[in-house]
């Protein structure tokens, strides 16, 4: 039976990986989609110690966003809590450029960026010519 959930895998190497996990009993392992390494750091603040969590891509230079991890390479697998889920979703949007997908990129055919004063002068000259 394959079960899918957003969770974390603690590897024997010490890495902790977060992503969408599918348990594959037949292959004796886990499929993880969009895996990120969890980095933790204790930070001193004016209100005391806080835990800073950073996520960075686990597989940095691959075209694939799905990987297979053998059970022998894992210590434990568990479902993510709501705090890390929100951090993961924000990070995933950032890396996949989901937030900026509605922005149009300028190119030479669309024109060039200019200063407002320069654009105003050009438009005034066009208006005066006609």
Number of domains: 1
Tell me the major beta sheet: 6 strands, antiparallel
The run of helices and strands is: EEEEEEHH
| Rg (C-alpha, Å) | 24 Å
Query: So what's the CATH class?
Result: Mainly Beta
CATH architecture label: Roll
Put simply, the count of helices is 2
Subunit arrangement of the protein:
single chain
Shape assignment: elongated
Helix content: 10-25%
- Give me the CATH fold name: SH3 type barrels
Unreliable stretches, pLDDT < 50, 5 or more residues?
none
Description:
The chain has 130 residues and is of the alpha+beta class. It has one domain (3-104): SH3 type barrels (Roll), CATH 2.30.30.100. The protein is 22% helix and 43% strand. The protein has helices at 82-96, 116-129, and strands spanning 3-11, 16-24, 29-45, 48-57, 66-70, 74-79. Strands 1, 2, 3, 4, 5 and 6 form a six-stranded antiparallel sheet that branches. Strand 1 and strand 2 form a beta hairpin. It is elongated and about 75 Å long. The mean pLDDT is 84.
Question: What labels describe this entry?
Answer:
SH3 type barrels; alpha+beta
In short:
The protein is built from 2 helices and 6 strands, in the order E-E-E-E-E-E-H-H. The chain has 130 residues and is of the alpha+beta class.
Q: Could you outline the blueprint of secondary structure elements for this entry?
A:
Blueprint: E1 3-11, E2 16-24, E3 29-45, E4 48-57, E5 66-70, E6 74-79, H1 82-96, H2 116-129
Antiparallel strand pairs: 1-2, 1-6, 2-3, 3-4, 3-5
């Amino acid at each position: 039976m394959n079960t899918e959930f957003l969770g974390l895998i603690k590897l024997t190497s010490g890495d902790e990986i977060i992503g969408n996990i599918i348990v594959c009993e037949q292959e004796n392992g886990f499929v993880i989609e969009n895996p990120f390494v969890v980095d933790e750091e204790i930070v001193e603040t004016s209100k005391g110690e806080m835990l800073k969590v950073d996520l960075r891509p686990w597989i940095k230079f691959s075209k694939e966003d799905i990987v297979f991890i053998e059970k022998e390479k894992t210590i434990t697998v568990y479902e993510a809590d709501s705090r890390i889920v929100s951090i993961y979703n924000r990070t995933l949007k950032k890396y996949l450029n989901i937030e900026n997908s509605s922005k149009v990129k300028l190119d030479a055919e669309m024109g060039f960026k200019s200063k407002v004063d320069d654009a105003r002068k050009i438009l005034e000259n066009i208006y005066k010519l006609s």
